[in-house]
Amino acid sequence: MLFCALAGVRLLQIVNRFQERIQMKRIDLQSCLDELLVCASFKDYCPNGLQVEGRDPIQRILCGVTASLALIEEAIKCEADAIVVHHGWFWRGDDPCVTGTRKARLAKLLAHDINLFAYHLPLDAHPVYGNNVQLAKVLGWQPTGPARQEPLLMLGRVEHPIGAGEVARSVAARLAREPLLVGDASRKVSTVAWCTGGGQGFFEQAIDAGADLFLSGEVSEKTVHLARESGVPFIAAGHHATERYGIQALAGFLAEKGLEAAFLDLDNPV
Ligand SMILES: [Zn+2]
Prior knowledge:
The protein is of the alpha/beta class. It folds into two domains: about 15-120 and about 245-265, 3-Layer(aba) Sandwich (Udp-n-acetylmuramoylalanyl-d-glutamate--2,6- Diaminopimelate Ligase, Chain: A, domain 1), CATH 3.40.1390; about 130-235, 3-Layer(aba) Sandwich (Udp-n-acetylmuramoylalanyl-d-glutamate--2,6- Diaminopimelate Ligase, Chain: A, domain 1), CATH 3.40.1390.30. It is built from ten helices and twelve strands. It has helices spanning about 25-35, 70-75, 100-110, 120-125, 130-140, 165-175, 205-210, 220-230, 240, 245-255, and strands spanning about 10, 50, 60-65, 80-85, 115-120, 140-145, 150-165, 180, 190-195, 215, 235, 260-265. Strands 1-12-3-4-5-2 form a six-stranded mixed β-sheet, sandwiched between helices. A six-stranded mixed β-sheet has the order 6-7-9-10-11-8. Helix 2 (about 70-75) runs parallel beside helix 3 (about 100-110) and helix 5 (about 130-140) crosses helix 10 (about 245-255). The longest helix is centred in the last third of the chain and has 13 residues, at about 245-255. The radius of gyration is 19 Å and the shape is elongated. It starts with 9 loop residues before the first strand and ends in a 5-residue tail after the last strand.
């Protein structure tokens, strides 16, 4: 059963199959997720795993894309013991001082003794729960595996070769969000490459890997020129919109373990 009803936000329900919900010690949940997502093998821009320690044990978990103030407030309303996100805190290059919005978020989390777990690149790349693989499921693409020497760049095929314009229309329908298509809309697409979120920097590698089209979440000014000059169209489908699915799948995994877990989609236009 879902543990709370939230007004005005889209809550995707993960129904717990177990009659009796379990509690897990924080350290056990941490090692379970760290091992599942093979955190030790990633060099990342942020710490993966437990970022802020809260109460122990843990039973109720709210999952979301980003550890925003809004998500923390929903976790407080739901009396969640832990928040699990894709975008956590303490990014390399961040101002390390606890001031302004950083202070507001941290103060709320600590005041309510809620644990914060974050999984960034390990959740992008995971072969089952990862953003790239889960996005392919939603888009109906068949992944053939990551590009050589770049585990975050996924390659795959569309079911039947179609024009890039048609791919963009299908993406719009499946993500319920209008993407930006740049480049040749009439190019026939059979091999696709993609990287969720801010993966537009992999565009040249996608071209080198033989992709007919590259999709990511965000777009940069130079991406447009590369699409036009290479003849390989590019789709920016939204950072948030392409990264909703890994953390949602992880919420499903936690629910399967017997924990009370739900995914909350707090919309973001970017
Ligand atoms: Zn991201």
